[in-house]
Amino acid sequence: MDEEYDVIVLGTGLTECILSGLLSVDGKKVLHMDRNDYYGGDSASLNLSQLYRQFKPGQEPPAELGRDRDYAVDLIPKFIIAAGELTRILVHTDVTRYLEFKQIAGSFVYRDGKISKVPSNEMEAVRSPLMGLFEKRRAKKFFEFLQSWKDEDPATHQGIDLDKDSMKVVYEKFGLEPGTQDFIGHAMALYLDDDYITKPAREAYKRIVLYTSSMARYGKSPYIYPLYGLGELPQSFARLSAIYGGTYMLDKPIDEIVTDESGKFIGVRSGNETVKAKQVIGDPSYFGAGKADGENGKVRVLEQHKVVRAICILKHPIPGTDDSDSAQIIIPQNQVNRRNDIYIAMVSSTHNVCSKDVYVAIVSTIVETSTPEREILPGLQLLGPIYEKFVSVSSLYTPTSSGQDDNIFITRSYDATSHFETVVDDVTDVWKRVTNKELVLKKREVEVEA
Q: What is the CATH number of the domain that holds 183?
């Protein structure tokens, strides 16, 4: 291994694979290594045996769940927003040719003890039990205001300054009730908590418009999802990297990140081989995450942001979702006296991730107490009878420095959001630090087969 690379990438999570694909396309010589023998790292999709091995060692999967190979269960559930940034990257890189997508059937919100569909068009809005008649009129005016907003035309602003006025001011201007604010902020703008209400409204405006334009693209919901699970995404970017000369090594132990006397990165040691490169990018687990000392203080744990997830195998669709084969359900925090929302993501055999007549629902939230599993009970109770359940609590890690001084660039852990927009934020941030230039995506018409 005398060859020198421009960049070594450690870990095959989605963030790392997107970066290695983009860097390879940019002409960089990339070596991509992973200690695991499968793609995806923390964001992998596991077959049934791998799932039991990880969560219930020594226990065999029940035969009635069907064939091992029919399963691709996501460790971290997220859906792709149809008009979002990840879709733009997929189209820009042409990675869509390796993937097939299917639409998620519905987006739902929990309110006053029951599940209601988030309206996907005006007809659904008129019939929705989420709002009374007068509130529907007020909400219609609110959405019309957002859709017609033009920065350069003050006549469309109705006296609002999105960069100064808070979202609270905007809601109050249209007289929206707290319940309506709730489903707009959490089920459409996809905020995890209510902190956004007191901040300038620009960010929330962008999120709501992204949601409604994604909804308009395919109709039933704003989300799409790759057939055979999210593990297909990192593999597709790995293929892209390989086409442009990137080299991949799976099942390769990483024994040491080698630095010179000034602490600058030189290479990576695996056994008695050391491979050299100018820069390294990797997920936090390769830089001491999970170790007591934090190894050189390269990563720190976000104490307030542990995530609890329960992967649940069901033999039926979730009650109250019109027998949908897939769904997202958001339980806004104030419906269950919490600070953070609870998310439920459900997929099924329609997405080639489990056997026929099996449904996989994953309930997740940010941990607030010393009994994490109890915190997701409101979500678990909506699922009906649960055939099997696998619970995990993960710490979230973030780098302590930009990496520009030592050429060691560390990505962030996957957060509790139900979509990939924050992953793309991390990709663009690391890209800028590594290359000293902005990530520019070509303006192509974003159209993904779903």
A: 1.10.405.10
Whether residue 257 is found in the same domain as residue 402:
yes
Q: Is the domain of 210 the same as that of 124?
A: yes
The answer to whether position 184 is within a domain reads yes
CATH of the domain at 295: 3.50.50.60
Q: How many residues does the chain have?
A: 450
Phi, psi angle pair for 359, to nearest 5°: -130, 140
Distance, in Å, from the CA atom of 77 to the CA atom of 45, rounded to the nearest integer, reads 10
Helix (H, G, I), strand (E, B) or coil at 317: coil
Q: Position 397: which residue type?
A: Y
Please say if the pLDDT value at position 215 is more than 90. Answer: no
Burial of 382 (0-12, 13-18, 19+ CB in 10 A): buried
Q: Alpha-carbon torsion 80, 84, 90, 96, what sign?
A: positive
User: Which domain does 157 fall in, by range?
Assistant: 117-218
How many C-beta atoms lie closer than 10 Å to residue 381's C-beta?
10
- Number of domains the chain contains: 3
- pLDDT per position as a tens digit, 15-58: 999 999 999 999 999 999 999 988 888 889 999 999 999 999 99
Give CA angle at 25 (22, 28), nearest 5°.
90
> In Å, what is the CA distance from 266 to each residue of 255, 257, 258, 295, 411?
14, 8, 6, 17, 19
